[in-house]
Design brief:
4 strands; alpha+beta; 1 helix; two-stranded antiparallel ribbon; two-stranded parallel ribbon
Length: 50
Amino acid sequence: MPYIQIKDLDMFYEKMGIGEPILFLHSGYSRGILAFACQMLDFQKNYTCY
């Protein structure tokens, strides 16, 4: 699982697709990647989704 560390924050991320980058953000109270599942299926065809 890829993580990035920013100061004292360890953040998990996933990368899907090819193309210009697009960033999907969600809170810790959401369903995570499931909250964007439908959108990511379409966006990953033309964008690198994080």
